[in-house]
Predict the 3D structure of the following.
Amino acid sequence: MLEDRFAGANAGRLVAEDALWEHRARTDAMTVVHILALLIGAASVAGLFYQAAAAWLLRSWMAAPRERPTRQPPISVLKPLFGDEPGLGDNLRSLCRQDYPTWQVVCGTLDPADLALAVAARVADEFPTVDLVAAASLDAPSARNRKVANLIAMLPRARHEVVAMADADVRVDARYLSDLAEALARPGAGAATCLYVGRPEPGIWSRLGALGINFGFLPSALVARALGRRDGCFGATIAIARETLDRAGGLAPLADLLADDWALGAAVRRLGLGIELAARPVEIVVDEPGLGALFAHELRWGRTVAAIDRPAYLASILAQPTALAALCILAAGAAWPALVLFVAACLVRYLTVRVQARALGIEAPSPGLLALREILTFAVFAGACWGRTVSWRGARYRVGRDGRMEPVEVSAP
C-alpha cells in the first residue's frame, strides 16, 4: 500500500516536471517570436524613414539645375541592337535630335538578317544630316555576353574621342549628350552614367515593370550614392573617353560577365577615377509580355546584384517597409501594434510614391497596382536571395561572385 502511494506520488511529480518543461519551452518560443516581431517591426520603421529620404533625394535631384558643359567633345554613341524592339525607331530618332555640336550614332547587330537594321536604315534616311551608321558585326568575338560582343565589334566604327554606350531600349531628350559631357568634365571623372525612368508599353506587366524601376531602383540608387556608394555604372548609358577605356583594359574583359556595367565601373575606379551621374535620367521602354517574363527579367537583375554584393542586397530589404510590416503581423499574431504599423507603412509608401511620381513628371500608380508591385518586389527579393541561376536570351547561366556567367547544362528529357 505504501509502495503504491510512493509510486503515485513519483508519477505525479514526473507529470508536473513535464508540464513545467513544456511551459518553459512554450514561453521560450513565444519570447523568440516576440523578439523576432520586434526586430522586423523596427526594420519596417527604418524602412519608412528610408522611403521618406528616397523621396526627398529624388525630388531634390530632379529640381537641381542642369549645368551647361564647359567642354563639348565629339561623342560617338554605340547602340547595340537585338531585334525590332517596341519603340526602337523613336529611340533612335531621339538620338538624332540632339542639341550638341558633333556626334555620331553607331548601330550594330550580330545577325545580318536582324530586323533592327532596317529600322536604323529608315531613321538614317529621315535624318540625312546626322552621322548615323548601321551594320552587322560579322567579326564579333565569341562571348557569353552577346551585347558586349556586339559593342567590341562596333567600337572600331566609332570616330570620336568619347564613346557613349546606350542600350537599344533607351530614349533620350535633346540635352542628353550635353548632360554626359558636363558629367565627364567634372574633376576626377573617369566615366559618366545615367539613371533611367521606365516608360511602359501597354499592358499590366509592362506597367508593373516600369513601377519597379521608377519607385524601386531609381530612388534606391540615389540613396546609395548619398550614402557614399558611387561605384556603380548603369547599363542604360555609360560614357567614357577612349583613352580611359583603353587604360581600364577595354571591353574584352567584360565579354563573359553578366554585370558588365558594374565591372566597367570597377575598372575605372581602379584607375583612381570616379563615376559621375548625369543631371537627368533617360527613359527606357519597358515591354513585358507576361508575368513569367517579368519575373525572370527582374530575378536576373536581383541575382546578379546579390552575387556581386550579397550583404548590400540583403540590406536592401529595408526599402520594403510594407513587406516587413506584413511579416511583423505574422510574427506578432496579428497584434494591434503590428496592424497599426502595417497601415502606416502602406500609407507612407503610397504618399512617397506620389511625391516621386510628381518629381519625375509621370502618373502615380493606383493603390491596387502599387500593392501588386510590392508583392512582386518581395517575391523577386526572396528568389534572388536563394539562387544564382538566371535566364537570358533563351539560355540559362549561373552567376559567379564576380558577375561571370557559366552556362547551365540542360539535360535531355
In short: The first strand starts at residue 75 and ends at 80.
